[in-house]
Design brief:
16% strand; 37% helix; alpha+beta; elongated; single chain
Length: 632
C-alpha cells in the first residue's frame, strides 16, 4: 500500500487506533491521547514548515514534508516511539553517544557503500523520535534516492543490533502501520472496511489455490494480507510456502482435536524440532499432559525415520503405494503415483490447502522438490477448478541423475553388488545383515559408517528396469587390499547371478595408494569373471558375460598410462569418463542402474553387513603405509 494520500492514510490509522483502545486492557489505554483526538496533531502550515527548513538549513525530504502538512507529529509511531516528528522539536542528532567512531572502526577496504553510509549517518541525521524507550528514528540527508527521499534508520539502543533501514519516511510509516495492524489482527473485534476487504482477498486466494491457479499470485495476495496481521492469511500462505521451499514454522493452532494440526502440522513441527536438536521436553510440554503420549510417540517416529504420512481416501492409498516404491529406490514411479492422485486429495477443513504432511515422511518428503510442490499447488484439488488435461509432471530436477552410476565426481570411493531375482531384504541377509535399519539419507549413512565397527554399512534397494535386480551400495568403503577381497559376488549369487563393482580413488594416487577399479561376475555361487585395474596395471580371470568387452575394464580405465614406480611421487588416476563407459557397458549387459535420486537426495534402507576384506591368514603381513612429503 503506497501512501499516495497522507490524509486518508493517517485518518484510517487514527480511527483504527481509537477502535483498538476500546479493545485494550483499561490500564493500558492512553487517555491523554484519546482526549486529544487520537494519534494525530493539527497540520503544519507552509509557514511553519518553511520555518523548520530554515532552522535546519535544508529542505525536507518530500514524504516527511507532506506528512507535516497533514499532521504536525504523531503519537505511538511504532512499539517504542511515543512521540514522533513534531516540527518545533525535531533536531539534528549530533551523535551525542559517540556511535560514529564505533562504526568506523569496522570499516576497511572491503566495506560496502551501505556500511560507509551507516558509519557517517550518526553525525548528520535528523532526530525524529522525541519521546521513546531508547529508540532513535533518524532521517539521513546523506542517504538520498532519485526522488529526493532520505533514508530512515531506526536504532533500538537496548537491542545491541544494527539500525533498521527504510527507504523513506513514508516507507517507515507504512511499516509501523503494518506492525500496528499486526498487533491487533488476532482480535476478531478489530474490524473495519479495510480488514474486511483483506479477509475477502484471503478467501479468494484460498479458492484460487485449490483450483490450481498461479502460485505466486496467490502467495502475494496472502503475504499482503498477512503483513496487516490477518491470521488466516498467515496459515494459508505458510502451507503453500512449505511445498515450494524448506519446512518452517506453521501457524496452525495447537489443537489435538483438529486433524489439520495432528496429521499435517504437528509432524512438520516435530521434524523441524528434531533437525534443530532442541530439548524434547519443550516439544512435549507444548501439548499438555493429555497430548504427551502422542507427542512423545511422534517425536520418536520422526527421529527414527519410521513416521508414515497417512492421509485418508484415494489419495492416502496412493501415498501408501508410493512409499513402497520409494522404499526400494523407485522414486520416479513413486512421484508419478502421488502426482496422479492429487486431484483426489481432500482437505480436512476450510483452512487446509494441500498435503503438506508429505514433507515429514522420511521416504516421500525428499521427493517433493520445489518444482514438484508447485505442481501439486497448480493441480485442481478437492473438486475445485476444471481439469486442464494431463499436466506436465516434473521429473527429477536437472542436477541429480535418474538411474545411473556414482563416479569420482561424486565420491572418492564406493562399491556395490547387484543380484538378480531376490529382494533387497534377502540381499541384506546374504550380506550378513540382520534386520533392515530405518531409511537413511546420504548424510545419515556417513554417521552410520563411522559408528560401525568390524563390518560395513550399506544401503539396499532395487536397481533393475523392472525391479528384478536388487543392490547394496556402500560409500567410501574400507580400502581395497589385493588378495584379501572376499568373494561377496559369488556368495550372494546362489541360485541366480550377481555383478559387483569396487571403485577406489585417492587424492594423490601413487605406488602405496593406487586407484582401483574392480568388477566381478558370478553365477550360482561361482565366480565367472573378475577384472581388476589398479594403478595402471590390469588383470582378469574367467570369461566375461556375453556382449561385455573386457578391454573396458583394463588399462583403458587409466588412459593406458604406465603404472607408478616406487620413486614416482604420483601414479596414474582412474579416469571418470572411462569409468562411466565401463559402467554403461554393465548397464547394457544386465539392464541395471542405481537409483541416483534416492541415493543422493532421498532415503533407502540401511544394513550392517560383513566386511569384504578377510582377516590376514597365517604368514600374511599387514602393511600400513604413511606418505610423507618432503618439506620445502
Amino acid at each position: 500500500m503506497d501512501i499516495d494520500n497522507w490524509q486518508s492514510f493517517l485518518d484510517r490509522w487514527n480511527a483504527q487506533w481509537v477502535m483498538a483502545q476500546g479493545l485494550t486492557d483499561p490500564e493500558e489505554v492512553d487517555e491523554e491521547a484519546l482526549a486529544a483526538g487520537g494519534l494525530r496533531f493539527a497540520p503544519a502550515d507552509e509557514a511553519r514548515t518553511a520555518a523548520l527548513e530554515e532552522r535546519l538549513g535544508t529542505r525536507l525530504p518530500p514524504s516527511y514534508r507532506a506528512f507535516l502538512q497533514v499532521s504536525d507529529g504523531w503519537r505511538h509511531a511504532g512499539g517504542f516511539v511515543y512521540l514522533l516528528g513534531v516540527s518545533a522539536d525535531v533536531h539534528w542528532h549530533g551523535d551525542a553517544m559517540g556511535m560514529k567512531p564505533l562504526y568506523e572502526e569496522q570499516l576497511d577496504e572491503r566495506s560496502r557503500p551501505s556500511e560507509i553510509l551507516l558509519a557517517g549517518m550518526w553525525e548528520r541525521a535528523l532526530q525524529l523520535a522525541l519521546d521513546s524507550d531508547m529508540t532513535d528514528v533518524l532521517l539521513d540527508p546523506g542517504d538520498v534516492d532519485e526522488d529526493g527521499e532520505w533514508a530512515v534508520y531506526v536504532y533500538k539502543g537496548w537491542s545491541g543490533e544494527y539500525p533498521d533501514r527504510y527507504a523513506s519516511f513514508a516507507a517507515f510509516m507504512q511499516a509501523m502501520y503494518r506492525d500496528f495492524c499486526g498487533d491487533h489482527g488476532h482480535d476478531p473485534r478489530f474490524e473495519d472496511g479495510m480488514t474486511r476487504e483483506l479477509d475477502a482477498s484471503v478467501e479468494r486466494a484460498r479458492l484460487a489455490c485449490l483450483a490450481g491457479e498461479d502460485v505466486d499470485t496467490q502467495m502475494a495476495v496472502l503475504e499482503e494480507a498477512q503483513s496487516y496481521g490477518r491470521p488466516r492469511a498467515m496459515m494459508l500462505r505458510q502451507q503453500m510456502a512449505v511445498l515450494v521451499g524448506p519446512v518452517g514454522h506453521l501457524a496452525v493452532p495447537l489443537d489435538m482435536t483438529d486433524p489439520l494440526y495432528v496429521h499435517e502440522a504437528m509432524p512438520l513441527h516435530a521434524l523441524d524440532h528434531c533437525q534443530s536438536h532442541r530439548d524434547d521436553d519443550w516439544f512435549v510440554r507444548r501439548h499438555g499432559e493429555e497430548g504427551r503420549p502422542e507427542a512423545e510417540a511422534l517425536l520418536a517416529s520422526v527421529r527414527e525415520r519410521t513416521f508414515r504420512y497417512e492421509p485418508p481416501g484415494p489419495f492416502g492409498r496412493a501415498v501408501a503405494e508410493a512409499r513402497e516404491l520409494a522404499r526400494w529406490g523407485d522414486t520416479e514411479a513413486a512421484w508419478q503415483m502421488i502426482a496422479a492422485a492429487v486431484p483426489d486429495w481432500e482437505p480436512y477443513g476450510p483452512e487446509h490447502l494441500a498435503p503438506i504432511g508429505l514433507k515429514a515422511d522420511p521416504l516421500l518428503g525428499p521427493l517433493l522438490t520445489p518444482e514438484r510442490g508447485r505442481h501439486i499447488l497448480t493441480t485442481p484439488r478437492a473438486g475445485h477448478g476444471v481439469p486442464r488435461g494431463a499436466a506436465s509432471v516434473p521429473p527429477h530436477p536437472a542436477g541429480p541423475r535418474g538411474p545411473g552410476w556414482p563416479t569420482g565426481e561424486d565420491h572418492q570411493s564406493w562399491r556395490f553388488v547387484a543380484v538378480q531375482g531376490i529382494t533387497p531384504r534377502t540381499l541384506a541377509e546374504r550380506l550378513g545383515g540382520t534386520d533392515l535399519l530405518a531409511p537413511h539419507s546420504e548424510g545419515e549413512m556417513w554417521r552410520l559408517r563411522h559408528r560401525s565397527v568390524g563390518g560395513c554399512a550399506y544401503q539396499v534397494g532395487s536397481c533393475g528396469g523392472e525391479g528384478d535386480w536388487s543392490f547394496a551400495l556402500e560409500w567410501d568403503p574400507e580400502s581395497y587390499q589385493p588378495g584379501r577381497v572376499t568373494g561377496v559376488d559369488a556368495a550372494v549369487s546362489r541360485g541366480t547371478r550377481s555383478v559387483s563393482v569396487w571403485s577406489e580413488r585417492h587424492h594423490s594416487p601413487g605406488p602405496a595408494f593406487a586407484d582401483v577399479f574392480r568388477v566381478a561376475y558370478a553365477e550360482d555361487g561361482e565366480g565367472r569373471f573378475t577384472a581388476v585395474a589398479r594403478g595402471g596395471v590390469a588383470e582378469s580371470t574367467g570369461t566375461p558375460p556375453e556382449g561385455l568387452d573386457p578391454d573396458l575394464f583394463g588399462t583403458a580405465l587409466f588412459g593406458g598410462a604406465a603404472p607408478a614406480r616406487e620413486e614416482d611421487e604420483e601414479g596414474p588416476a582412474l579416469l571418470s569418463e572411462a569409468e562411466v563407459r565401463a559402467l554403461d557397458a554393465l548397464a547394457g549387459a544386465f539392464g541395471i542402474g542405481l537409483p541416483w535420486f534416492a541415493l543422493r537426495h532421498g532415503r533407502l534402507h540401511a544394513v550392517r553387513g560383513a566386511s569384504w576384506i578377510r582377516p590376514p591368514g597365517r604368514g600374511e603381513a599387514v602393511l600400513a603405509f604413511t606418505r610423507i612429503r618432503p618439506s620445502g
